[in-house]
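Homework-ish question, so no full write-ups if that breaks the rules, but can someone show me the predicted structure for this set?
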Amino acid sequence: MIPFKFSIAKNPSEALGLIHPHAAFLAGGTNILDLMKEHVAQPSEIIDLGRLPLNTIKPTATGISLGALAKNTETANHQLIRKDYPMLSKAILAGASAQIRNMASNGGNLLQRTRCSYFYDINMPCNKRVPGSGCAAMKGFNRMHAIFGWSDQCVAVYPSDMAIALSALNASVKVMQQNGSERSIPFTDFHLLPKDHPEKDNSLNHGELITSIELPKNNFAGHSAYIKVRDRNSYAFALVSVAAGFELEGNSIKTAHIAMGGVAHKPWRALKAEAFLKDKTATFANFTKAADLEMSAAKPLSHNKFKIEMGKQTLIHAFEVALKV
Amino acid sequence: MKQNKSPLSPEEKKLFGDLMPEELNEVLSSGLQRRHFLKLMGLASAGLLVSHMVGAEQLFARSVEFDEIPDLIPTAIENGINVSFKVNSNNKKVLIDSRMTLLDTLRERIGLTGSKKGCDHGQCGACTVIVDGNRVLSCLTLAASCEGKSVITIEGLAKDNELNPMQQAFLKHDGFQCGFCTPGQICSAVALMKEAKEGQASFVTSNIREQAGAVMLSDEEIAERMSGNICRCGAYPNIVAAIKEAQTGKNIEQNWLFAG
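A: Not a homework solution, just the prediction itself:
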C-alpha cells in the first residue's frame, strides 16, 4: 500500500466535500483494501464512510429501499427481503463468505472490480488497469472470462452475485452528486460493457456517491431462483450463475426476468430468453428452447467454450427451480 | 520489543516436566518465558496430548500478551492516526500508520498474536475476529476505521481459567492439525452460534422465505457457513463435529481414537 491520508466523513455532503480525483471512498473495504495491497488502486486519500446514516432498509411506496451502507448480511436476512425478494437473499448468500458479507456494503458490492488475474497482476498489460496497455487475458488463460459482450479491449467478467439478482429485479441506483443533487440510474444501465473503455466499470462519475438501491415491487417472490455454478461448493466466484423470476398465470408465463453472472462485463440480462418465454407454457421444452436461444449468441474465448453448455443447463435448471418453488 | 516477563507458573512447570522431563532443567536455567513455553507446548503436542492433561485447559485459557510495546514515534509516521477501541474488554489507544490493518495492529501494536496472517487477502479466514458481535476479516479492515468499536480475538474468548465451550469442543474433537487456522476457525464458529440463534439464513437454507427462528445446524449448513475459513490440514470433519457439539451441548462422537 502506498501512504494515504485517512479522513472520516460524518454525512453524505461532508463525504462529497472531501472527495477529489485521487481520493477513494471506503465502505466495507473488502475489495479496495485488497486492490490497494496489490497496488492496483493507489488512492492518496481514503474517506471513511462508516459513519454515514445510509444503512437503513425500509419499505417505500413503490417497493423497498436498500441503504448503500447497509451490510450484505443484514440485507440478505431482512425479513422483507427474504419474503418478497428471495432471489436477492439467495444471490447475496451465494457470494463470498459470512465474514465478508458482514463487512461488505450494498453500495460497495456494486462497485467491486473484476477478479481477472491479469487485472490484479500489475506486471501484466491490462486495458482496464492501464488504458491502452493491451489485454493479456485475450490470448492468456481465459477460462473464467466472458462469453457475451466482450470487446477486443477487455474480456473480463463482473464478479458480484448480488448485482445479478438486482438486474433481474429491475432495481435502480440512487446517486448523490457533488453539487448535492440526486440522480437515479436504472440498474441495467449502471454497469457497462467494455467496448473501447474497459477502465470504466459503470456509469458512476468519480465523486458521485451511491446513497441507496431502490427495488420496485414484483410478483416473482413465489417463483424465483438464484443458481450458481462454481469450481468448489462454496466461497468461489461464479463460472456461471442465473437469477430467474417468473410471474405465472396458471402454467403460463406472464413475465420472465432473467439475468446471468460470470458471462459478461456486466450482469447479463437474458433478453432473448425473456422474450421467448413471455406468454409461453412453463414446460421443459420451452425452457430448453429459451436457453438455446440465449446461448446461441455466445462468443467463447480459447478456454471457456464449456460456459455455453454450462450456461444453457444452468438456465434450464434455474427455470425449473423457479417454477417449483 | 520486550518479552513478557512472567516466569512459568508451578502448574506450567509440572506440565512441561511431564511432557519433556529431560529438557525441564535446561529450560528453567535458560530463563524460558511463558510465551516460548506455550510455543513449545504447541509444537510438542499439536494440542492432542495436552488436551487431556490435567491443567492444560486452564493453561491455554490464559492469554499471552506482550507487556510493553514501544509506541511509534509520531514524527516518523507520515499518516499517523490515534485510534481507541476495545480489545477483549480492555480499552486500547494506539498510534498507527493509516495503512495498518486491524490484524497488524492487534499483532504488532497490541501484542495479541493469536489472530493469524494467512493470505492477507481475505481468502483464508485465519485472521477472523469478532467486531461489535460480528465475525469479520481483520486483514481487510483498516484499524483506523475501528474507532470506538469492540474487538474480540481468540485471546478474549476464555473467561478467567475457563475455556469457551467452542474452544473445549475443538480440543475434544481435535479440530485442527497444525493449528494455524484454528484461532480464525474458533472465532468464526463462536460468531456462527449467534447467527444461528438469530435465525440467519445461508445459501443452503431450503426455504429462504420461511423465517422459523433459531437454526439447528446440519453438517451441510456448518460446511457452507464456515466456508470462509480454510484448513489446509483438512481437519474439516473434526471441526464440523466440534461445532455441532458446541451448538447442541450434546456429546458428539469423536472422529478419532487413541491407538491401542
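Now go work out the reasoning yourself. Hint: The interface with chain A takes residues 78-79, 81, 97-99, 101, 120-122, 125, 128, 134-137, 140-142, 144-145, 147, 188, 191-192, 195, 198-203, 205, 208-209, 211, 223-229 of chain B (CB under 8 Å).
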